[in-house]
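In the design runs reported in the main text, the only information available to the sequence generator was the tokenized backbone. The following block is the verbatim input for one such run; it is reproduced so that readers can re-run the procedure and compare outputs position by position.
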């Protein structure tokens, strides 16, 4: 793809919520954020315990709906035993994943998505980014080709976006996730005609509270280029026990704030469905925002308490 200098204004990004179907708190938060125009893509755990209950509500929204391929967390009896992320990662990079198991999980989750949505997903990504792993990516693309023919769901590219101002630990994690498979995914996308987001934003340790999240969000959004994807993991507070429940609620607090849309508009950003954007061109890693002042920071979006 061509390299161009990023324009600060007129940047269109996808904001994607992960883990829809996990529980009522996650699903409720995402439906609210979609209705507020803060989220343009929702990644679904098709075998999640709440997915069937809320799929119809989600389907009525103007939003990209994707499969969040899960190979590390057993969400229902039919999932069977799932390996821990570390185990899956080691097996993948050693070429030790059982092809039949991988193929079966992909097929079963696509079946479940189609059964509740009545159509193909707009895109596919992975819970803990497993969709890009060796031994997973090619079987996934093969099944997508066999099922949907010329229709091409877009794929999540995990290569990190601009990391200016991002805490060092978060930047290191973002780079590591990208190293796990973004190059292979982008090569396949270019060769076979799959669409992807430009780069990925939103990687951090899922901790720190609302004020820390607002600071990170400020960096991610200010760094965003046209076609980037910001992932998030919001949930309603205090409803369902889950990992990182308090931080998920903190994300929801920041993302639902009524002033966020105004801040984004003042800083040249628009939330859009990636499936509806035209062809994207890659942009330079070093972008020039000289003489462009951000219209305030985001910390004011949360209380001082």
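Verbatim output:
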């Amino acid at each position: 793809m061509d390299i161009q200098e990023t324009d600060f204004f007129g940047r269109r990004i996808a904001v994607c919520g992960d883990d829809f179907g996990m529980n009522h708190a996650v699903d409720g938060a995402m439906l609210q954020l979609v209705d507020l125009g803060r989220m343009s893509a929702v990644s679904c755990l098709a075998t999640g315990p709440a997915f069937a209950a809320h799929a119809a509500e989600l389907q009525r929204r103007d939003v990209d709906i994707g499969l969040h391929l899960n190979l590390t967390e057993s969400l229902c009896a039919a999932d069977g035993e799932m390996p821990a992320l570390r185990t899956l990662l080691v097996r993948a990079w050693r070429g030790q994943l059982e092809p039949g198991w991988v193929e079966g999980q992909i097929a079963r989750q696509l079946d479940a998505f189609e059964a509740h949505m009545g159509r193909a997903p707009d895109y596919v990504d992975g819970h803990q980014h497993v969709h890009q792993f060796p031994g997973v990516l090619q079987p996934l693309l093969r099944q997508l080709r066999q099922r949907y023919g010329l229709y091409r769901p877009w794929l999540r590219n995990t290569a990190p976006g601009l990391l200016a101002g991002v805490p060092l630990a978060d930047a290191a994690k973002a780079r590591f996730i990208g190293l796990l498979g973004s190059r292979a995914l982008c090569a396949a996308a270019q060769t076979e005609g799959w669409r992807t987001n430009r780069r990925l934003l939103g990687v951090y340790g899922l901790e720190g509270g609302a004020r820390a999240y607002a600071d990170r969000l400020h960096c991610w959004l200010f760094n965003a280029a046209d076609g980037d994807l910001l992932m998030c993991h919001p949930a309603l507070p205090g409803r369902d026990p889950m990992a990182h429940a308090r931080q998920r609620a903190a994300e929801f607090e920041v993302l639902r704030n009524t002033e966020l849309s105004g801040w984004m508009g003042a800083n040249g950003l628009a939330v859009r469905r990636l499936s509806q954007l035209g062809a994207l061109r890659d942009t330079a890693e070093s972008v020039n925002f000289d003489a462009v002042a951000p219209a305030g920071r985001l910390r004011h979006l949360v209380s001082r308490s």
